[in-house]
Design a protein that fits this description.
By secondary structure, the chain is an alpha+beta fold. It contains nine helices and eleven strands. Strands 1, 2, 3, 4, 5, 6 and 7 form a seven-stranded mixed sheet that branches. A four-stranded antiparallel sheet has the order 9-10-8-11. The two termini are 27 Å apart. The protein binds (R)-mevalonate (MEV).
């Protein structure tokens, strides 16, 4: 008996942070970068998480479940009203940790999927999404739910908190160069800091959140119609708003400028910010130049994903 499940990384194209305050956001899966969970028969139930440097038989009887992997297992078993099966589940992830690419949600999704399969109950995307959202609270504190949703459904989404998900139809494919600053950053902290700003100066911050909301609406139309020349300026405007929310960093700003100088049509940080990854909109002719410039500028990992209809499915 052996079961393998996986889940992709994600990128937020527009609207991070504002989405926590009920503004819309757009996110796409990165299907080439994945977390995988493989289950094999074993004498005891255990999770082996090599990338996370941990091997542990999880104490699922414990009432205090404050570990993301343990909580994932706990919630799946509770949902299915079943006992832990005698399996060893090995987790591997190609997704860098704490870098805005959704590694936590992808690992939880892959683990929950594999455990459901082992128990003979393949969880629906709806069930999985609810479970992974609960686990995201450990990583983020007050998550909007966008990360788990784009990762579980593996489709480009236009997302508003607590509203039905809208899958976006992408009229024309576009390449995005993704560059990692190499600085790990906690989304929980950046989200918490924006919350403090909001509490201290609600009127000023509300204006920025409103502006981000308008950018996202315009970006949605551009993506749906394929008028991609308008997308780059929207990314730059969104990045400027995120700077005002204090979630950029000097390295992120530097990489954004480097990408623009190398021919990108637009660029911005993606995800929680303060480190992690930035994204740059390229054309198929400029990918190589932008990738090379970002490497040269000190990005620790640079790769390109093409956002297109193929990502749906
Ligand atoms: C993190 O990928 C996205 C944030 O908007 C947080 C959230 O939506 O939960 C920063």
């Amino acid at each position: 008996m052996s079961f393998t499940s996986s889940a992709p990384a994600k990128i937020i194209l527009f609207g991070e942070h504002a989405v926590v305050y009920d503004k819309p956001a757009i996110a796409v899966p990165v299907s080439s970068l994945r977390a995988t969970a493989s289950a094999e028969e074993s004498n005891i139930f255990q999770i082996i998480a090599k990338d996370l440097d941990r091997v542990f038989p999880i104490d699922i009887q414990s009432q205090v479940v404050d570990d993301a992997l343990a909580l994932t297992v706990h919630l799946v078993l509770q949902h299915l009203k079943l006992a832990p099966p005698p399996v060893s589940i090995t987790i591997q992830s190609q997704i860098p940790l704490a870098s805005g690419l959704g590694s936590g949600a992808a690992v939880s999704t892959a683990l929950a999927r594999a455990l459901g399969k082992v128990l003979g109950h393949e969880l629906s995307d709806f069930e999985l999404n609810q479970i992974v959202y609960e686990v995201e609270k450990i990583h983020h504190g007050t998550p909007s739910g966008i990360d788990n949703t784009v990762i579980v459904y593996e489709k480009p989404i236009y997302f508003i908190r607590s509203k039905p998900i809208e899958i976006i139809d992408i009229a024309k494919a576009f390449p995005l160069v993704i560059a990692d600053t190499g600085q790990q950053a906690s989304t929980r902290i950046s989200v918490g800091d924006v919350r403090k700003l909001y509490e201290n100066t609600p009127n000023e911050i509300q204006l920025i959140l409103d502006e981000i909301g308008q950018i996202v609406e315009q970006a949605r139309e551009v993506i749906k119609t394929g008028a991609l020349e308008r997308l780059g300026p929207l990314m730059l405007r969104n990045h400027a708003c995120l700077q005002q929310l204090t979630v950029s960093s000097s390295q992120l700003d530097h990489l954004v400028q480097v990408a623009i100088d190398a021919g990108a049509l637009g660029a911005k940080l993606s995800g929680g910010g303060r480190g992690g990854n930035m994204i740059a909109l390229a054309t198929f002719d400029t990918i190589n130049a932008i990738e090379a410039a970002l490497h040269h500028a000190g990005a620790v990992r640079v790769f390109t994903t093409v956002v297109d209809k193929q990502q749906v499915g």
